[in-house]
Design a protein that fits this description.
alpha+beta; globular
Length: 196
């Protein structure tokens, strides 16, 4: 019985130490990980959507909390005005979540661009949502407050051949971006005043 108690105490101490060590490593590297994700995963989509901005949208960003989470907003300054933003959204694809970056012109509430940042879709089929610019270009100049659906569901977006579920996932992600944008627009406009 004593041996069992001794073993439980040793395992408890080792588990606590290991857990504390892992938490310390995570806390120490979390900022570095965020910078790497912004530079290499989300950065290309942000730069493409806010191309021509006189600032660096990855540096000029802010976060807003909403019911259910927190969202990053990347600011694009054009002609001296912080008039365009890009922010994250997601939809469900065939292989899992599809991470999106959605850009919007604040004054017109029009989509200026959509980029796929992360996905687990089938290579060469569903992955075209990220690699084929003609698919995401369909969203450009549309009202962000719209509900987006693929044409096979009676909507306005052409599907990627062989990747209907992926196409639906992107459309749903853009629709969800519109819902988030609409609910946070007053806070977004207030934050943008800081970038003048």
């Amino acid at each position: 019985m004593r041996e069992m108690i001794k073993m439980i105490v040793v395992l408890t101490v080792l588990s606590s130490f290991s857990g504390g060590l892992l938490a310390a490593v995570r806390n120490k590297t979390i900022d570095r990980i965020e910078v790497q994700q912004l530079t290499f995963v989300k950065g290309p989509a942000i730069q493409a959507i806010l191309e021509g901005a006189s600032n660096d949208p990855i540096v000029d960003r802010f976060k807003l909390e909403y019911e259910g989470g927190e969202a990053n907003f990347f600011v694009g300054v054009f002609n001296g005005e912080p008039a365009k933003i890009a922010f994250e959204s997601a939809g469900k694809g065939f292989g899992g979540d599809i991470g999106l970056m959605v850009g919007v012109d604040i004054k017109a509430d029009k989509i200026i661009g959509v980029g796929v940042t992360t996905h687990s879709e089938t290579p060469g089929v569903g992955s075209k949502a990220q690699t084929d610019p003609s698919f995401t270009k369909q969203f450009q100049d549309m009202d962000l407050m719209s509900t987006f659906q693929v044409k096979t569901d009676g909507g306005q977006i052409d599907v990627i051949t062989g990747a209907t579920i992926t196409s639906r996932g992107v459309a749903i992600g853009v629709t969800q971006a519109g819902v988030l944008y609409k609910s946070l627009k007053p806070q977004i406009e207030a934050k943008l005043k800081e970038f003048k």
